[in-house]
Amino acid sequence: MRTRLLLISHPATAAQRKGAFPDDDPLDAPAADEAAAFRASNAPLLDADLALSSPAACARDTAKAFGLAAHALAALADADYGRWRGRRLLELSDEEPDALAAWARDPSAAPHGGESFDALRFRVGGWLDALEHRGNTVAVTHASVIRAALIHVLQAPPAAFARIDVPPLAVVELRRSERGWTWRPTPHRPA
Length: 191
Description:
By secondary structure, the protein is an alpha/beta fold. 36% of the residues lie in helices and 17% in strands. It has one domain: 3-Layer(aba) Sandwich (Rossmann fold). The chain has seven helices and six strands, in the order βααβαβαααβαββ. The protein has a six-stranded mixed sheet. α6 (117-130) packs across α7.
């Protein structure tokens, strides 16, 4: 039996809508409505043998809104943004423009004292390589984790992370067979 893994990004949180780094924000009313609409439009997509989520409140809330009894998994956690957690990008561009620019272009940089994209990529790649579940798995997580998974599966250069756009409620399907992991476009109806 093959492994089918759907990675779904949570809806935009209030912090994201105001241009801030996340700080374990729960879903607010507009985001919860978006998650409910996604479930209504994509119920068959959410049929899973195993449901997982990031430990973050927004991912757990999204999984619940999808009707999933998801197990929180540390490997699916968002990148650790260190001292930038909760801070707005506009403030940081004024206060730490060089550090912000370095972080945006260099996957090994972590000037915020948290996790670099390379570290996130190794964490997510290690989890993918160790995943033993066969069948359908749905994992609710963050855009950064989905970017890291795609870089790992496609064996793309780490600098490509900045060129992958993962919007809220995006769905990425990965499949594993004896050949290894592959990415497959997944049709779904937007919420």
